[in-house]
């Protein structure tokens, strides 16, 4: 029997010690494979082009620039890659900027080993992943820009089917899972997402999910 393909990972951190620790941790998982390491943005861009990783673990602070800009450029060049920001910085603006730059996850370096490994698997499966502490910040960002109680909900502009799609996305479902649950073609789900992103004036799943959580909080 052929074993399933391993998830290829690119590590981008200026600390050799951090990279060594991550490589050792991920190397112990049979389904994960560190294909390259970079200590600078320049090296990350070069190695991403040759190694074509499925997931990129990217620090925010790098010697030749900031990780948010690197995330934006990596997504432009390699849109199929899934980028997780892994950093010690839990700054509100950085979280927002990273999500808008295309990051699929934002984790703090104090996350436990099991949480990090699962986050990589989730990212590779198309799911967004946020550190619990970061989730609270994303929701706070959504609240700060939320309309007053007398204004209509931004979700009111969505059709019933778009709201059903958004509800599942907010639960972390992938496009394929949404398609199966709603008995739709995966391409149709992508079309619904494009439409609802435009109506909500967002560009990322995490932003849409934060808005949904804000509007449906108990």
Automatic annotation (TrEMBL):
Record-annotated HTH luxR-type domain positions: 151-216
Molecular-function annotations in GO: DNA binding
Example GO biological process: phosphorelay signal transduction system
Keywords linked to the UniProt accession: DNA-binding, Phosphoprotein, Transcription, Transcription regulation
Superkingdom, natural source: Bacteria
4-aspartylphosphate found at: 59
Pfam family, one: Response_reg
Name of the molecule in the record: Response regulator transcription factor
Domain Response regulatory: 8-124
